[in-house]
Amino acid sequence: MTTIAGRGAVITGGASGIGFATAARLAERGARVLLADIEADALDDAVGRLRAGGAQAHGAICDVTSLESVAELAERSFSVLSEVHIVFNNAGVAVAGPVAGMSHDDWRWVIDVDLWGPIHGVEAFLPRLISQGQGGHLAFTASFAGLVPNVGLGPYCVAKYGVVALAEVLRRELRPEGIGVSVLCPMRVSTAIGRSERNRSASYGEAAQTRKVGDMSEDDGDLAGRVLPVGMVADLTVDAIEAGRLYVLPHEESRESIRRRFAQIDRTFEEQPGFI
To answer: Of the residues 156, 161, 204, 247, which is catalytic?
Structure first.
């Protein structure tokens, strides 16, 4: 995507964290933005802050676990923005603890938000982007946990590995359509994901007796990587959208772990008895 100015952009989980920071950066570059979020008060505040800065900003309540809700978001987005070019599937939650301690509802909640949410975004927006015939860009928030297994984040890893796979497949499929794809895979970022239980609906029951995800502070030694400010991550995300770059990897310290994972896979060809 050669320019952001004048483009229509939709961001889920847009009322806070990476979503809001990215929306602000897109607006600064002249995009018309629509923030989608499940938290009404936070959404109103976020839209107000962008408008106060001169942005063309709109809001929409959306539950990404519902295809119907995301389809309604797409309908509203094209109605309000006239055209949509950038869709950032960013909303996410997490539950921490060993896999053996996860309840079925824990699995359902994390996968419904973190994996089905992006899938719903693709289902609702991609046919419209293609028929619009103006190219565009799909972006996804995955995680370092979508590239390297993180102990204590089993459901989150499963979902985020899926998001990375979704982005990689779409990258190949959508090149002829002129639609770019990016997937953000950070370690720790200064967001409120450690308090994501606040948005867990009653339909997912009570959380299992597992600890909450860390508060994304440097004091939490159980989590890897520096805590990066959301603005820095948003800058890299917008740069990737402009450049058409697939992977967004904000943490240099994740590099060695990623290398080790793929080296282990490659080494298997030498260690196993032989090819079948």
So the answer is: 156
Residue pLDDT, tens place only, 155-191: 999 999 999 999 999 999 999 999 999 999 999 999 9
What's the pLDDT band for 199 if we cut at 50, 70, 90?
Answer: confident
Distances (CA, A) of 194 to 95, 126, 172, 212: 8, 31, 34, 6
**Alpha helical stretches, state H, 89-202:** 104-111, 117-132, 154-174
Whether the CA torsion 155, 156, 158, 159 is positive or negative: it is: positive
* Matching residue, tokens 């002249």: 30
Report the CATH number of the 8-271 domain: 3.40.50.720
Find out whether 221 and 215 touch, Cβ atoms under 8 Å: no
Please state the domain extents for the chain. 8-271
CA–CA dist 273, 217 (Å, integer):
46
* pLDDT greater than 80 at residue 215: no
* 33, 11 Cβ separation under 8 angstroms: yes
End-to-end CA distance of the chain: 44
Q: Is 247 a catalytic residue?
A: no
The C-alpha atoms of residue 143 and residue 164 are separated, in whole angstroms, by 8
Distance CA 234, CA 239 (A): 8
Tell me how far CA of residue 124 lies from CA of 16, 76, 176, 250, in angstroms. 23, 11, 20, 29
Virtual torsion, Cα 246, 240, 90, 67, nearest 10 deg? -60
